[in-house]
Fold this protein.
Amino acid sequence: MKKSLGIIAGIVIIMSFMSVGQCFAKLGGQVFFRGSWAALSTDRDEDAFMGGSENCNNKDGWGTAAGLHLPLAVDPFLKNDIMGEIMLSYYKFGSDEGDAANNMFTALIGPRYRIHLGKEGTPIHRFQPFIGVGMLFGVISPPSNDVNYLDIGVQPSIGIDYTLPCMDDLMSIGIDYRYSFFAHDVGRDEDFQSAGVYLGINF
């Protein structure tokens, strides 16, 4: 009896993986994980909460992010994809030395236009340039001299995605460049740019 149940469970698992693979080939979305270089437009040398640490005038940093690209519609004229992008990011500017770390957390939601090159099935079709723009929500730590830490903004992006020719097109790699413009409601300029690479899992 136990052996029969084990065989049945194994068949169900195998069929589940097969059905998941079929779903991956149809939906056209992506889960992605991104790593990036980042740089602030201005330093935080005048910010009292930075405590005079070495990070006050260090504008360079790094970031890590994860997100989703979800299919929304198809351009009726050029037949390109209109995607929805959701991305959560963490950035650290400066070094680990000093009393105060300069960190930022952002959440992005917006459209992304993905361009198809060449005919489907050709090598160039695996390269998919894209442009996007999204509404940005930012949290800075430590807060500004106004004791504010929440801000809103906009983030345009540009890049290219390449679908790897293996595992039934399950994986993609890509590069992108983004610039984050904020409303400066925190009492300072926290705009920054980033250039990153990402790994995508297609579904």
Remarks:
- Confidence is low (pLDDT under 50) at residues 17-25.
- Residues 43 and 57 are 5 Å apart (CA to CA).
- The two ends are 37 Å apart (CA to CA).
